Amino acid sequence: MSAVSPRYVLVSPVRDEAAYARRTLESIAAQTVQPALWVIVDDGSTDETPAILAEYAARLPYIRIVRREDRGRRSVGPGVIDAFYAGLATVDLSNFDFVCKLDLDLDIPPTYFEVMIDRMRANPRLGTCSGKPYFLADGRLVSEGCGDEMSVGMIKFYRTGCFIEIGGFVREVMWDGIDCHTCRMKGWTAKSWDDPETRFVHLRPMGSSHKGILTGRFRHGFGQYFMGTSFAYMAASAAWRMKQRPYVIGGLAMLAGWVVSALRGAKRYENAEFRAFLRQYQRTCLLKGKACATAEAEERQLSVWREKPAPMVAAERQIA
Question: Residue 146 in contact with residue 133, Cβ under 8 Å?
Fold first, then answer.
């Protein structure tokens, strides 16, 4: 790490995270490269979360708390992103090299953000990145099985210029897939790594924060439908998920979410260029595998990235 450290801002939407918040807060306090600013959006918590946040805000000068009124229920997907943007609205992105959407139910290794920054510096085309999430089951850590070609939603680390160019996050379920595919479409790359420096513990398994993990898997199927995923790709993805907890029924719930959405004529992401790019990528995944499809997409879009103004650095405008 150079003598002049890049500045990064964390934005954390949070609701009723008293059971996990301290672990995340302590993880950030222990980072070898500290955030310049951490905006924590309390999205109407009714447990001890506000008191915990106040305690740490008094200790850590870079924490800023934004309080939202209680809507009366937890809202995943668009609700989380609405809360994220409530925090981002208080930030001047031109002051930061990197921006990260961070959940408050994680236990992160102390060099995590130093490693992310170093890898961003080493690869100027890298737009977003993350480590890999694990959760505790039967006394052992189990991988959540996230692909190498995506940064994970609970700790998305972005180069600010890339975040602005893709238009930030879509306010709908599958926002954390749309953003990575949009990165590739616009010539950037998205990565996640599974090594000791970047593995972290997800204190609550992915998709289980609202009415249980099966509801989360069903919601994932709806999100895939909204994004524009084909039935063939969804079926293959669901079959792969059947090998993970909850075995078989988790994958079936995902497929059911897609099928029910299709039968109901649910809305889809209104970006024809994106959907065409996604379908081409998914066809290649089915024929050649995901690693090959990702490499081909990155090579094909390299000319798009080379046409960007150089260097792509701090924000030129705010994300509304």
Answer: yes
Round to whole Å and give the CA distance between 303 and 315.
22
Q: Do both 54 and 197 map to the same domain?
A: yes
Our count of domains for the chain comes to 2
Both 181 and 56 in one domain: the answer is yes
Residue 169 contacts residue 134 (beta carbons within 8 Å):
no
Q: Is residue 310 part of a domain?
A: no
In this prediction, residue 58 carries a pLDDT of 98
User: Which string of DSSP letters, residue by residue, matches 103-118?
Assistant: -SSEE--TTHHHHHHH
- Output the pTM of the full model: 0.90
Instruction: Summarize pLDDT for 160-177 with one digit per residue, the tens.
Output: 999 999 999 999 989 999
The CATH number of whichever domain residue 179 belongs to comes to 3.90.550.10
Tell me, yes or no, whether 233 lies in a domain.
Answer: yes
Domain range for residue 278?
Answer: 213-291
87 touches 41 (CB < 8 A): yes
Quickly count: other Cβ atoms within 10 Å of residue 72's Cβ.
Answer: 8
User: Which sign does the torsion angle of CA 29, 33, 36, 39 carry?
Assistant: negative
Distances 13 to 41, 88, 115, 209, 266 between C-alpha atoms, Å: 5, 10, 23, 13, 27
